[in-house]
Amino acid sequence: MRRLTATERHPVRFTLNGKPAEGTAHPRMLLSDFLRGVQGATGTHVGCEHGVCGACTVRIDGATARSCLTFAVQIEGAEIDTVEALAPAPGRLSVLQDAFRKHHALQCGFCTPGILMSLDTLLATEPRANAERIRDVLSGHLCRCTGYQPIVAAALDAAQTLREETDNA
Amino acid sequence: MKPAAFDYVHCETLDEAAEMIAQTGDDARILAGGQSLVAMLNMRLATPTVLVDVMPAQDARKVAADNGTLKISAAVRQASLLDDPNLTSRNPLLAQMLPWVGHPQTRARGTLCGSVAHADPSAEIPLALAALDGTVILRRGRKRRSVKATDFFLGMMLTDKADDEMIEAVTFADVEQGTGTGFAEVGRRKGDFAIVACAALISPKRVRLAVGGVNDTPFVKDWDTLSPQDEGEALNALAWSLDARGDLHATARYRRDLVRHLGAKALKEARTCAD
Ligand SMILES: Cc1cc2nc3c(=O)[nH]c(=O)nc-3n(C[C@@H](O)[C@H](O)[C@H](O)COP(=O)(O)OP(=O)(O)OC[C@H]3O[C@@H](n4cnc5c(N)ncnc54)[C@H](O)[C@@H]3O)c2cc1C
Ligand code: FES
Ligand code: FES
Closest ligand 1 atom, CA of B109? Predict the structure, then answer.
């Protein structure tokens, strides 16, 4: 049993986008604030801070989760992936990101980091995901701009490109 | 919206968590998946001074087939039970209901025991627990007691659990061979809490309908038999017998109507798979 006191900052060591990372946090610090404010990883957005909008979605040990409903001190030893991990190199986009651009799957972009994390995770585990599965995963996100249709189209397009890439590999 | 300050306690065993809660009482809260609690902390609807994280406890991750029941410990996440390939054959009703609990992103963290402890009147897991003759295993330090689901839920977000107790596990009775199950729900959007949800179980001995979202606690109605001809009238009587109220999401009349329609839908599905 470890008790971390409210008034002190405690060290948190974890893996961020494949690289070792560390920082300190009070127990009450949300993972979303820790990523943005302490780690400087501002790609993750914060909207509602009560789990509803999905903008803050990241991967924790391979599964998508709300970073606004997790405390930084809970991720000691965990692997965290954020939207910063998706692009393969500076100036290049992932297949999914590229499909978002092609299909106008974003306007203001506020919801996009969370949606990308959810759909990237879906396509990695279910390369044959159909529109229904994509919509099921999208149900965990709010987008005020697009009406969702272009997001579904982008995800289907990306799924097909990824399948062709693996088939031809 | 940030939580008030609290001490965070990382527990490696259930014993540690139970001990901590027993000592600290109503100043402490168990932190499970955090999908309801952290939202409440962020909004300062709850301001505990100690959070007792039960998720790191290895011995709290067990799912055990136990004497005709499925026993689910405190740190079992909704997604991990849903991923269990044997769930549909053991407990088809739970397998039908779990996909309606929030979204993939919340099920990846949220637990079954946390949902039972939270006791939202519209929540699917408490409804499943009531429909499936479930029990809640409570612990105060090393002392355990077991409470039937129908006695556990006392009101809206109100349960028989004392502040110095924790839920160690919940059990759901297995669905017997020859019993058909059905589930139907209406919410504002996919993944939202239900406005009304109905779970049906039909065996040669009994017809059961459990209704969530209307009364403050899950409501279970049993009939010895219920022929399709009598069903409409029985569902209408059931709808009027409940304490339907109007709120921001739905009028009382709409809720009663949903009981009639979703009840029929769930019973039909149960009848089809019982045949
Ligand atoms: C966007 C969104 C949509 C949702 N939609 C739904 C939905 O459609 N249906 C639904 O049912 N739920 C829904 N939920 C809530 C659900 O996801 C939660 O998982 C659940 O209500 C609580 O489980 P938890 O493990 O996250 O518990 P926590 O949030 O960690 O805890 C909830 C409460 O239970 C107490 N507690 C937890 N575990 C124990 C224990 N072992 N012993 C004693 N007390 C304990 C905590 O102290 C706290 O008071 C939704 C949540 C979000 C964010
Ligand atoms: S900011 Fe986390 S879900 Fe909205
Ligand atoms: S692109 Fe603006 S909210 Fe989705």
Answer: 26
